[in-house]
Amino acid sequence: MKRYIAAGVILIAFSCTNAEKTSKVASDSTVAVAQESATAEIELKDTKVQSIYDGYILLKNALVATEFEAAKTAAATLKISLEGYKGCENTALLAGKIAGAKDIAAQRKEFTSLSSDVIALFKHADLKKGAIYVQRCPMANDGDGGEWLASEKKIQNPYYGDEMMECGAVIDEIKTAAQ
Description:
Layout: H1 2-17, H2 28-40, E1 43-44, H3 47-64, H4 68-83, H5 89-99, H6 104-123, E2 127-129, E3 131-137, E4 146-150, E5 169-175
């Protein structure tokens, strides 16, 4: 068991210190196309939950691209979707904090709590198509770590953006019942 833990720690440390493989974020139109195609692969049974997922992914991608204004807009839209889903009122408040944040660092800090709530929601959601990946960066939040959802296995870290784009690992996979 200790060997598996040690191997996991080494793998995470290697992925977080691999500076040579830094990704570059393309123009806004390319990012928008990538966002659309990524969320198009995921289909949820409940349209309200689908709207929450799509809004969350837009916010996550804006944080990955370190786009403060886009993150504000995405968080405001996500807040509306969350307010319309029973039980997500407190999570909507977190989205509102991100929309009203004064800088990208404050947005990323609030994103941790928002992600925790949203991950719990999607672990119990009915997925019709695709897989949702729960990813974690152990270095986020001053070493406390931070999790997020993604439509693909490839790590694109919303907590650090291009500073440490590939820092993290897939820790869970949410699949359809048939998978």
